[in-house]
Amino acid sequence: MTGDQRRMSIDGENVQLPISPKALAVHDPPKFNQGGQINSSVFAGDRDTMQNGAAEAVICNSKKLQDAMQEIGLKIKHHEDNIKFLKAQKNILDDSILDTQVALGRYQSASEPGSENKESSNRRNEEEIIERILKHDKSAAGIYCQLKTHHGPQVTHLPLLKDVMGIVALLGKVDDDNLSRLLSDYLGLETMLAVVCKTPDGIKALETYDKEGFINKSSGLYALGASIGRALDARFLVICLGNLRPYEGAFIADDPQRRLALMKPRLPNGETPPGFLGFAVNMINIDSANLYCATSTGHGLRETLFYKLFSRLQVYKTRTEMLQALTVITHGAISLDGGIIKSNGVFALGNSEVEVKFPKSSGRSNLPENYFDTESRLKELKWKRDRFLEDLHREQTLLDHAKFNFEIKKQEFVKFLAHSSSFATPKFPAVGERSTPIS
User: Fold this and answer.
1) By percentage, how much of the chain surpasses pLDDT 90?
2) pLDDT per residue over 40-74, tens digit each?
3) What is the pTM of this model?
4) Which DSSP category does 278 fall into?
5) What is the C-alpha separation between 164 and 170, in angstroms, rounded?
């Protein structure tokens, strides 16, 4: 009989039976080695069974913890997606509310008692602006206003001036006198007195040159000024609408003033800067005749002249709020308390006297037919924004709770891994111990 086999007699015949490790472990008495110690190979099967069972328990518990963490992770992702969506919708509502408020703000004064007196006062205000321009008697703007004052609409029939639309200061109006002063200060007197022409031909008509390249003062606006006793002897700006690159974006829907749908500045958190009131280009009121087709290409004054002058100039309530928004100011800014940023890194300090500014709007003439519908829509927009704010607060609370639970499960998982690491450590046989199972 060998060490791996036994013989037994069945019905008188010797039968050789294999000995399995499990049978040996269960039925045979323990074997001792020469040193009198129990042979460890006898318990190999039991130890493997115990270790396999423990490993299975570790894997099972690990999977439960991982599944729980994954489930909480999906909840976190769900709440984060909801918050992202709600913030995007809130920002859209904020933009719509701001645009609606800007539009309504220009018409509310018309519904107040005494609006007729205000309209008459605004007409006088425009006359005062013209008188201030006329004081610049040797300027191109002064000559043009002098001709228009004496000849009225007929001045546009003069061959020399048929392409001239007017003076910058008189082509737009502003509701608030303080805002008018600030916008005029930002542009400067030279720009406010600039002559606006439709095409390059209008510029050629205003000033001609002799063979030597000197100005021919016997023709053009020089000759016209001399004919009314106003000698033109200073440089002047002329803005040609046909040479300007117009705004190519969309317009605010249902806005009778065709204001530009410019993207609002956004802080890193996605919010509009505190104190932001709007863009200067949209705060200019333009006569209906110049809202459409001021140029041969069908563009109005807002998307050509005033977009060129103001671009994306931002308007804020206070200088402090304006300075806090420096990171999102790309084309300058002004504040209602006198702050001016010309461009990135260029600040205008101190005070200045503004001699020529934009006239005040008449109010009633610009009152839209759907004013009360717009007012109701504003209330509805504010109500919707409040609901979104409530949803945002609720989702943020749920997100914080889910993240808290995730951290707890994460700590449990780390502790579990540390506690069960002994089961993952490989077991090596002791010296003299068999490394192969009995077969």
Assistant:
1) 25
2) 554 455 555 555 666 676 678 777 878 888 888 88
3) 0.60
4) E
5) 13
Q: Which amino acid is at 122?
A: N
CB 250 within 8 A of CB 259: no
Cα maximum dimension of the chain: 152
Question: Looking at residue 349, what is its pLDDT?
Answer: 83
- Stretch 179-190: mean pLDDT: 93
Q: Note whether 42 and 26 are within 8 A (CB).
A: no
Whole-angstrom distance, CA of residue 3 vs CA of residue 325: 90
- What's the helix, strand, coil split of the chain in %, to 5? 55, 10, 35
Amino acid at 276: F
Amino acid at 222: Y
Using CA atoms, how far residue 86 sits from 74, 90, 91, 130, 264, in Å, is 18, 6, 9, 51, 18
Written as six digits, the tokens of 72 are 């909480």
**What is the Cα–Cα distance from 361 to 408, expressed in whole angstroms?**
63
Q: Based on C-alpha coordinates, what's the Rg of the chain?
A: 43
Q: Are the C-beta atoms of residues 31 and 19 closer than 8 Å to each other? A: no
- Secondary structure (3-state) at 340: strand
Strands 276-279 and 314-316: antiparallel
What are the tens digits of pLDDT across the range 9-41?
444 445 444 444 444 344 444 444 554 444 555
- Segment (H or E) for 346: strand 346-348
